Amino acid sequence: MTITKVKYNGKKLEVAFERLGESGLDEWSFVSRDTPRPEFIAAWDGLKTVAAKMLGGKPENHDVRGLSFHEVVRGSETEPGAILTTSWTLGWTKTPVTVNSPLSSFKQMPDRGAKTAIELVEAETKLFIEGKRAQTDLFASEEVEAPSDAVLDDEYDDGGEGLAKIAEAADNSASGDGAETAEPEAPEPVPAESVPAHAV
Predict the structure, then answer these.
(1) How many Å apart are CA 64 and CA 146, to the nearest integer?
(2) Distance from the Cα of residue 149 to its chain's centroid
(3) pTM of this prediction?
(4) pLDDT at 177 over 80
(5) Which alpha helices (DSSP H) does the chain contain, by range?
(6) CA 63 → CA 36, 38, 82, 93, 125, distances in Å?
(7) Which of 85, 137, 141, 194 has the maximum number of C-beta atoms within 10 A of its C-beta?
(8) Using CA atoms, how far apart are residues 118 and 103, in angstroms rounded to an integer?
(9) What are 130-163's pLDDT values in tens digits?
């Protein structure tokens, strides 16, 4: 799996990635409003320092909204790199401006910790795709509870008539009232010739 783009504004997360399928490289993208893990949010906040080192200003004045991954060709070599999109509040106005950082390889970035910070966001994004989110049991099966008496009463409500009949039948049985109980039948007599001699 290769992450190509991540967007996060604190409410929803947009992700684009590539994955090798049966017929070649498949491109996937989705938008989710699930809350990411605290580790993802912390890693994303770490991009503010990277943006400040690349563009200027203070980290707290940057609200990073996007991160895209690219290959940077330098001579005969290809190096991994990235572009950051930030909502930057300048010191002299409260209106932020949206700015993209220049396409830079990790080696070109002025912040020595940029590569680590960006790779941490990449790793957390992969965990999000795999279901590791603020809801740690996202794919766990829910236990089914046995229905309570109240539920059964709601489903089979006959105004209590059925239960009353059962109780009445039980009382009648205990007191001897109600329907007469049939006397047990006497055994049929056994013919004398069929009785063994020693038993007479």
Answers:
(1) 48
(2) 31
(3) 0.65
(4) no
(5) 38-45, 47-55, 114-129, 149-155, 161-175
(6) 17, 17, 17, 15, 18
(7) 85
(8) 14
(9) 999 987 655 554 443 433 443 333 433 444 444 4
